[in-house]
């Protein structure tokens, strides 16, 4: 399930999309970026949790850096729940590709390569 919340102008938007594994795979294929390195395909197909994890990583990678509250809001919108968004935030915090810095009142999540 994918939940999108926000607004279009003055109109509030709260949209929930139900997606199966094939839908997630197609979405993930749309978000892939060409790599200069050769990579080996995973032995098992991505499940929904893996697909959401990849989308969360891509979100931060493309942004370069985001404040903790902004990132959490994006992750909650992606997962459709506060608890799932927080789990992804913690997973990003402990990822080798992410550096968390003190950004004053809030942490700053920075993608490192």
In short:
The protein is α+β, with helices and mostly antiparallel strands. It is built from four helices and five strands.
How is this fold's topology laid out?
Layout: E1 2-8, E2 11-17, H1 21-31, H2 48-63, E3 65-67, H3 68-79, H4 82-93, E4 98-103, E5 106-111
Antiparallel strand pairs: 1-2, 3-5, 4-5
Description:
Helices cover 45% and strands 26% of the residues. It is of the alpha+beta class and 113 residues long. It has a single domain (2-33, 45-111), classed as Orthogonal Bundle (Arc Repressor Mutant, subunit A), CATH 1.10.10. The mean pLDDT is 81.
Q: Which class in CATH terms?
A: Mainly Alpha
Distance between the termini: 30 Å
Number of strands: 5
Q: Rough shape? A: globular
Strand content: 25-35%
The total number of structural domains is: 1
The low-confidence runs, each spanning 5 or more residues with pLDDT under 50, are none
Query: What is the fourth-level CATH superfamily?
Result: Winged helix-like DNA-binding domain superfamily/Winged helix DNA-binding domain
As laid out across the biggest beta sheet, the strand order is: 3-5-4
Helix/strand-derived category reads alpha+beta
Total helical segments: 4
Q: Sheet with the most strands?
A: 3 strands, antiparallel
N to C succession of SSEs:
EEHHEHHEE
- Under the CATH scheme, the architecture is Orthogonal Bundle
Query: CATH topology, what is it called?
Result: Arc Repressor Mutant, subunit A
Helix content: 40-55%
- How large, in whole angstroms, is the Cα Rg? 15 Å
The chain-level mean pLDDT equals 81
């Amino acid at each position: 399930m994918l939940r999108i919340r926000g607004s279009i102008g003055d109109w509030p938007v709260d949209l929930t999309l139900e997606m199966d594994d094939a839908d997630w795979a197609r979405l993930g294929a749309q978000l892939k970026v060409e790599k200069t390195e050769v990579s080996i395909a995973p032995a098992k197909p991505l499940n929904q949790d893996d697909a959401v994890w990849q989308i969360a990583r891509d979100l931060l990678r493309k942004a370069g850096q985001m404040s903790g509250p902004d990132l959490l809001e994006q992750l909650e919108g992606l997962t459709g729940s506060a608890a799932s968004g927080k789990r992804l935030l913690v997973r990003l915090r402990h990822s080798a590709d992410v550096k968390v810095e003190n950004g004053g009142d809030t942490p700053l999540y920075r993608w490192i390569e």
